[in-house]
Amino acid sequence: MYDQTLLENEKKRIDYPLSRLICFVMFMIWQMGVIYYTGPALNIDGRTPLPIDMDNITAIIAIGYILNIVWLILFPKKFIYAARAAVVIAFISVLGLFLPLSEEMLAVLIYIQCFSCCFMIGFEASTMIYVFTEKTTILHLLAAYPIGYIVISILQNDIFKLPFTYFRFGIVFMLILLIYFYFKLPTNTFPNLLKKKDGALYSKHLFIGVYILTFLACLLAVIGPSAVASIKNGVSTLYIFAAVGGISAYFIYKKYNVHPIKTVSFEIMLGAIGFLLLFLSLKIPFLSLPACAFMGIGLIPCALLPLYGLILMKQYPRRSIPVVIMTLAIISALISSSILEMFRNDIELLYLTHLAIVIIMAFIYLFTSPFMLMSLHKKITQEPSKGSKLPEFLSALTERELEVADLIGHGYSNRDISKMLFISEHTVKDHTKNIYRKLDIHSRYELTAMLSKHKHSQ
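The structure assignment produced for this chain is given below.
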């Protein structure tokens, strides 16, 4: 039943061209545009010529996020209908900004905009996790998202100020495209979900690693723009180079068949260099814009969050995946605000804290990425198809050891492996020791890295 469920889910997934994804990326541009104009959210100065109360904005953001999580818990199969309703309400409210209403009433319409984009944020991730194929998700995050980054860099520049009138017309245009996307999105593609009673086991190593990685990525996604907000043209530079990083990663993926998960470690390293340069810019000011550039490329691992969720969904489809990701996003936003407040008067310590978070993220990714890569490939077969041969490094393993090695590579614990193969945990440990000895390795990480490299080369 487990394999059949995964197979049926893959058949339901949809491929979309870039032209359709450009409509979808309007959500990200719309959200950032609303944040930009409502007020000093995320340390970015707002430019709405209306009496916006930031206490109201904070409450609206919190309510929007919480209601989104509640909806994903209670009605996961209806998220497309909710997205349609929210985007239509947002469209009606933005049309009201063109009417001769009082400033207070116009501010209420801005609040509705803010609520709608916060309420929909989990639906964006759910669309990729539940509906898109892996190829389409990568295309969206690394080719369509850069278009959004470029628009955001224009919105948040310090050279010229975008008038509120242009903002209104821009939002109308974005919402029309977003309405088109969601009303064209089929509602019968929701995957079959596994339950505890199905008896299927999931890789705890993979899930825990990805969730920790998700939390740190969400943290950095908030910290990055906040850290450079006080630098002239810092935010624009950040997003321009985020676009450069995304397009570069997609080019490498298409031209050299290097999966984006494989390039994340390099992007995290560049992000770490960016935060280090930001720290040094306190003494050497001209390093501030290069720091923003490196940090922009370092945002790519944060943008790949839906891809991480899709990997989990492909291994063990469960409704909690988008919910956990959204919950971690909220917690990370609260923690980043606390860190900012805690070190507000000690900017050096604040930047060092940011750098430490990037380094921790690099270590978590290092130990999680092999499990993610393994989950993207088919399992090792104990009986290879005709004409194929096991690689030399696996030829010394017995049939049972191959089964154990495959399950270890997919992140399963000894207890889970014993249940799946109907053997004792002690026997699993014995097989594991034999595998390590024959392959001259010492850890699950080394084994998974070897298997992942072999899978990718096939």
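Interim note for the steering committee: Confidence is low (pLDDT under 50) at residues 379-388. The chain has 20 helices and no strands.
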